[in-house]
Amino acid sequence: MRRPFVAGNWKMHNTLAEARALAKAVWNGLRGKNRVDVALCPPFTALTTVAEAIKESPVKLGGQNCYFEPKGAFTGEISAPMLADAGCACVIIGHSERRQVFGETGELLHKKVRAALQAGLDVIYCVGETLEEREAGRTEAVVARHLDEVLAGDIPPARLTIAYEPVWAIGTGRTATPEQAQEVHAFIRPRLAQVFGLDAAAAMRIQYGGSVKPNNAAGLMACPDIDGALVGGACLVAADFLAIIAAAADSVS
Ligand code: 13P
């Protein structure tokens, strides 16, 4: 049985005061409940504030991105060792907003994944197709390409989570149905098995992301290959994020 993993991607939201209040509210809501791994991924400016707010808790801190060089003249960038130093346990790599808005390529993401692992960070690696790609029947080809960009036997599988985030479902309120999501997750797992072997692939968590809300989380989390969520908008409201975590917990009870 895989332990669900729910991560909140705060994207470019929250002042320090808001970050502190949200992190504390999540931690307070989780006390005494430990059936789900939970991570908060605030913007860089709030990392240490959130680290402080959750320091006595099992909640993990994550970055939303990092550069692959450890240090140097890279104005505006943050390195993986810097994230680790700020208290991060994990980092999101390859989010579709990084691919689309910032032009990140597979070659770059390959380097970022290795740099993050090297720095001791676990990786949440995002894959997913656009609406145009889905409608052209290319969902599996796109997801396979995203996986192939970074997967190789040098990655410790236990430190990698895959997040399937169909681009058309992100921030649109149009979530994938449980059947649509499960279909892609069930495509991803055997591809992980090709690289890491059946047992390792069976133990890896594959999150779903894209308009996950309290009212649709239970249906998604009940799918056999959906092992948690990467949550955007709904993670900015503690009660909503906690409800999604509860749905993930219920899916394994
Ligand atoms: P929404 O939950 O706002 O659709 O965002 C999903 C996402 O991009 C998480 O990384």
Could you explain how this protein is built, in words?
There is one protein chain. With 253 residues, the chain is of the alpha/beta class. It has one domain (5-9, 32-233): Aldolase class I (TIM Barrel), CATH 3.20.20.70. The chain has 11 helices and 8 strands. An 8-stranded parallel barrel has the order 1-2-3-4-5-6-7-8, surrounded by 6 helices. Helix 10 runs parallel beside helix 11. The protein starts with a strand and ends with a helix. The structure holds 1,3-dihydroxyacetonephosphate (13P).
Describe this structure in a few short sentences:
The chain has 253 residues and is α/β, with parallel strands linked by helices. The chain is 43% helix and 15% strand. It has an 8-stranded parallel β-barrel with strand order 1-2-3-4-5-6-7-8, surrounded by 6 helices.
* CATH homologous superfamily (4th level) name: Aldolase class I
- Largest sheet at a glance? 8 strands, parallel, barrel
Class inferred from helices and paired strands: alpha/beta
End-to-end distance: 10 Å
Count of individual beta strands: 8
Helix content: 40-55%
Count of discrete alpha- or pi-helical segments spanning 4 or more residues: 11
Just name the CATH architecture. Answer: Alpha-Beta Barrel
User: H/E order of the elements?
Assistant: EHEHEHEHHEHHEHHEHEH
Low-confidence stretches: none
CATH class assignment: Alpha Beta
Q: What is the rounded Rg?
A: 17 Å
Distinct ligands, ions and cofactors found in the model:
1,3-dihydroxyacetonephosphate
And the CATH topology?
TIM Barrel
Number of domains: 1
Q: What shape does the CA trace take?
A: globular
Placed side by side, the strands forming the largest sheet appear as 1-2-3-4-5-6-7-8
| Percent of sequence in beta strands | 5-15%
